[in-house]
């Protein structure tokens, strides 16, 4: 007799049975954290790239710096006077007073008394520029230069004084003379009032190498022939004047000088000197320079 087959039973899970077992998930996550993160740190194993050797100290210093640290308190201002500033680190040329050794009139006759010549405003800056001459770099010593001026032919020559007892090497002197000739090639002679045709003028120069120029540098003195006159920064002038502008500015030096006084129209002044288009005046306790247009001149 055949056996009867058992009926097939199909069980359908309920929705509650299909939910994940969160307890098991938590256990798996905890084990993964211990194996992947906590264990290397506890064992001292470095699982990332190392900081390059030359940047490691900087990285450690940055990491150890406190980001919220308060700024250091400012230091108290020093009570002692600051040290004197060192001499300028450049070549310096100090120009001595100009001395006229000879002069000739329009008939080429030598004059014994040459008087004064308003040459310094145009000549001294040229001489000071010799500090930039390649032959003068690092030079220390004294040198007398002679400037020969012919106002009729408008010629200027720069030569070495024959009686100058300089210790500067001849080759260096030659280089400085070449620089001097270039500097005086465009001398504005029209700005120099002159009484005679031809003048020979001497200027004593003192060269100081970079960093050696004293705070009050002594001006070199020209050597050679006896003086028949001298150069000046202003021409002689005299008389009186009256301010014709509403306001005339009185300056310490011509053109760009500090304003030392203001004069109203009608103010009378005493004229004591002149430099090109500017007059040196005196009024009360004030002395300064006024443009000629302000005096109606």
Which class do the helix and strand fractions yield?
Answer: alpha+beta
Question: H/E element string?
Answer: HHHEEEHEEHEEEEEEEEE
What is the number of helices?
5
Low-confidence parts, pLDDT < 50 over ≥5 residues? 51-84
Instruction: Based on Cα principal axes, name the global outline.
Output: flat
Largest sheet: 7 strands, mixed
> How much helicity do the residues have?
10-25%
Strand content: 25-35%
Evaluate the radius of gyration.
45 Å
Arithmetic mean pLDDT = 78
First CA to last CA: what distance?
Answer: 158 Å
Query: How many strand units?
Result: 14
Write out key terms for the chains shown.
single chain, 297 residues, alpha+beta, SH3 type barrels, 7-stranded mixed β-sheet, 5-stranded antiparallel β-sheet, 5 helices, 20% helix, flat
Summary of the model, kept short:
The protein is α+β, with helices and mostly antiparallel strands and 297 residues long. The chain contains five helices and 14 strands.
